[in-house]
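Input for the complex:
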Amino acid sequence: MTDINTSKTTATTITSDKFKVACSNCNLRELCLPMGFNAEEMLRLDEIVATRKQVKQGQHLFTNGDPFTSLYAIRTGFFKTCVASEDGREQVTGFQMAGEIIGLDGIVTDHHNCDAVALEDAEVCIMPFSNVEHLSREFPVLQRHVHKIMSREIVRENGMMMMLGNMRAEERLAAFLLNLVQRLHARGFSQSELILRMTREEIGSYLGLKLETISRTFSKFSEDGIIEVKQRYVRILDADQLKQLCNLQTSI
Amino acid sequence: MTDINTSKTTATTITSDKFKVACSNCNLRELCLPMGFNAEEMLRLDEIVATRKQVKQGQHLFTNGDPFTSLYAIRTGFFKTCVASEDGREQVTGFQMAGEIIGLDGIVTDHHNCDAVALEDAEVCIMPFSNVEHLSREFPVLQRHVHKIMSREIVRENGMMMMLGNMRAEERLAAFLLNLVQRLHARGFSQSELILRMTREEIGSYLGLKLETISRTFSKFSEDGIIEVKQRYVRILDADQLKQLCNLQTSI
DNA sequence: CGAGTCATTGATCTGTCTCAATATTAGTGG
DNA sequence: CCACTAATATTGAGACAGATCAATGACTCG
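Predicted:
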């Protein structure tokens, strides 16, 4: 159960079978939906997901400017979200994995304000936002859950502002690795090993650093015996030292 | 109506008079509440605000760790929100003015995750979150509005990540000034003059720069004839050049 | 197997930070 | 009203973390 995060394991080819699309028997339920419903209510909650969608590696789930209609719950795979400035500079705003929700950026203007790109073959549950709002009005627990998800994203971005505004390269990368491994661990993967799904350049964009700096900092951590790195493979040897490096709450 | 932003003008001493606390006749209504209600619905909506509260300059409206109970709509005055790392480094995460909502960070953990500090004497409307959620279930328009406010904050922070990750000092300060003056203009103040409510250090913390860099960049803008600066007073002489400096959407 | 993508490492450059001194303003009390 | 103090702002000189430029190496995938 604490495998390394080679999510190939869960790559069951899903049919469009109605039964399979139900939240009520989804093994990610506790990650993307609130708890505490009885069986009958769970069935109503299944209405929230209209259908599923496969997204191949490199494909966009949505693009800046697209009309906003739905939120997406990641079933399998790994995404990045990013924004671009007019002159082409790109900023990765987040990396998302199974059980996490993307698309919240689209609510305010009814159009998406960032790109969501699959970093590996992925599958998402499409949740039309009208369904979300409708069911939220019926189920206060769901309503609260939706609010919490949005609030969590706000708090996460607050933490990112702290990273980008105040922390040095080593601190940023340490915090990044700890956050990643913690989220993977919550999904049953190892808490000391991981396979990065993104390039050095994407990590750098996320952390406000250049890819060379990411590479150098990985090498330094490796020399110091804190981690073992081999391309996309990372093994954390001394988690305590990593935590010391980033005096930041490993927020959410 | 396009006065400089010396908000002394609106400093009417408010009584606890029930009538005065009503949203239905608040001149900031269009800023913090959705439009399109009839008179009867507006009266119901008044229930959303329990009471008001005065916050003196320098006082905290809430502090990291405080139990979360309410959102706050700013009636008058100016706030900053900030987070701190364990070793004491502070990151300003936002500046908020009349009509804006603060406290969203508290929803996810039921405790606030940042500090909100008044930068000048202020008054806020206290909106118990249970009221917000209750009325949201009754009024879909309000529900959507709450979602939009949270989404707007997420998008704003995405833009901040772009600033902090990719932009140089001049670009950051230009974007900052344009954003500030645009929001002030939306409130009836001048679109070329403003009084800064925060110190160079607070601007620097917000923009991920040191106070000396802020001061130097102000001086440079001044030498280049883009702005006129005298301590807290700023007059924008060449808005186009400022806009050119920040190839960023002047997001929201 | 080969082409393209991605990662590593070195040398040098630069934007911002740091340290420091001074100037200006706001606030306080006599 | 002024003197005094603390807070804030400006400006300079030098230092440094990370960027940039460049070359090589490793992996991936058709």
